[in-house]
Structure formats: structure tokens, C-alpha cells
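[step 3/7] fold_predict: job queued, chain A
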Amino acid sequence: MTPYPQPIDATPAEAVQTTDRGRRPITALAATAVASLLLLAAPAPSAASYADRAETRAFIAELAERHAFDPAELDRALSQAEYEPDVIRLITPPARKGVRSWRNYRARFLDDVRIDGGMDFWAAHTAELERAAREFGVPAEIIVAIIGVETLYGRNTGNFTTLSALATLAFDYPPRAELFRRELEALFLLAREQGRDPASYSGSFAGALGYPQFLPSSIRSFAVDFDRNGRIDFDGDAVDAIGSVANYLRVHGWQTDAPIAERARLPSDTDSAALVGAGIEPKLSPEALSAQGVTTLDGRPAAALATLVDLETPGADTEYWFGYRNFYVITRYNRSSFYAMSVFELAEALRLRRLVDGIRAERR
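[step 4/7] structure written:
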């Protein structure tokens, strides 16, 4: 997840945050330049333990005062944290941004491995997924698809020590230091609440954990004990992840039985850039879209307030979609229309496969 539970437009399980081209407050090139300058200006990490650094001692003092931590315990924990150069390498934006390609992005998540794995995951957790759908109003296929896109159903959850990854980002990555200091603080709070050693967590280079790739702050805010065993486990059991993904979407405004997205058709003279530039939150009314000749492929008006999503592939026609409120909610998990559309299309593939398999089973 990105830092919002999280889940960047790169591999979702190792994402921090992204927005779509055309919706950034500054250009991608400018953002990369700023980040690079900040990193160049930052001092090289000290060989000393994180616990011995002045900024870390100030951080310890803040947490001790704010949350009644024992400073000695925080000091002992941070003395175990190690600077992780691979974390900095992986999170630093590339000097030259690659070409945006929906076809390439989609191919990573709409393949036999994820569809077959999704069917197996659904079969193994049918009862839990049905209960999540009843309690939270989120379809089972959406829950399965998010976990599939994030971590391939728990197979790829990351192998970075979370304490070291977050300490590296909090104290040696100036562009996002404030955000990751909050996540490091949340890790200490989470460890205290769960009765765990802060150094016992592992996950992505950005500090995201377990099947659903929640950051520590998101676990504390949105995770649920869905198997009702008295603890939240994102590492060894998918059940809490199923309930937590559903709860996250519900809290962020999921509308039960409402549409998610559908293909749009634009007249050739439509100012698509202006419509896309209206933003990812659905604000375009069906009437306003119809007035410009923008409809579904079969000529119907948009079903509700929509955003116009552009899925670009070099050398191919751009796909345009209406993204409704539930599409927007998926982007709260990872702030990318490519990500949300991959979740939607994988969910549809899983739903249809399950439907076909059910019909075949009845005919036998």
C-alpha cells in the first residue's frame, strides 16, 4: 500500500504514493529534480547507531513525552536499526521517467498466475469473503483482487526489516522524512499494542506489511480482527487482511452495489485533456458529459457522477473510462488510476471465472 494505507505507481506492494500524470501539483520532472537535490544535499548516513544520532535522540524524546514510552526501550530498539541503502535506491524516483503504458502495466496483473491464484485464494476463504461482503458491503472479488495485486495473495510481502526500512526513510531520506517519521512512530505504537518487538516486523522497502500491505498507521486505523482471535495478524493468516481491506474501503466511502467503472466513448473533437484534468474524484455529471457527446460505448449516459480516466499506451489508442465513486475509493488505497483499473479488471476476471466454473459444475 502507499502511505495511505498503502500501497507508488510502481509495484503496489512496494509503493509509497503517486498521482496520475496531469493531476500532479508539480510535474514529474520537477518532483524528481527536487528529490535528487535534497538527497545530494543530505549528509551521508553516519556509521554510528541510529540511537546515537542527534535527530534520533530528539525523536525518542518526543515519543517518550507524547506517548509515555520508556526512552531506554526506544533507544534499545533503534540501536538495532540499520541503514538500508537498497531502501533509498528503491524509493528514489528515476532520473528519467519511463513512458507511461497501460498495456504494460495491465499485463503485470491480468495474467494466469494472478487469476488462477485468485481462484485458489477465493476457494480457500469463501466463507470469510462472503462474511466481509455482508458486513462491509464490498464484493468478494474486489477484496481478492486488491490482495492479489498487492502481494500475489501473500506470496510477495517483502523481506525488509520494517524498523530499519522506516528508520532509513525517516532519518536519511529528506524528501519524505516527515511522513516516515510518523510511520516509525506508528510502528512503535503498534508494537506496544501488539506486545511485539519493533524489530520483529518485516515487509516492503516502504514499510508496508503483510497480505494487504498496510503501513503501521493504517493497521492502527483500519485493521480489524476479522477471525476474532484477539489479535491482528497480517503475516501468517489472510483472514484479518480480508476484513481489513474491506473495512478500509468502507471507511473511505465504498457504496454497496454501486458501479465502479465502465468504458467511455468520446467524439473526436472532445477536449479530453480538460475532462481528464478535472481530477480523479468524480465530479462530472452525466448531463455535462452527455452535452459534450461523451457516453458509454453503447450510447448511454454515465451512470452517476464520474471522473474521466485516460489509460494511455504508446502506439495505441487511449482507452477512456468513466470512474465512479467506488473507483475513486480504490484509488484511496493506491493513488493511481492504473492501479485502480488493474484491481477492477482483475476483480471482473475473477468474478466471471467463478461464475463460469459454477455453471460448469452444475451441468456435470
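[step 5/7] annotate
The radius of gyration is 22 Å.
Residues 12-96+157-251 form a domain with the Helicase, Ruva Protein; domain 3 fold (CATH 1.10.8.350).
exit 0
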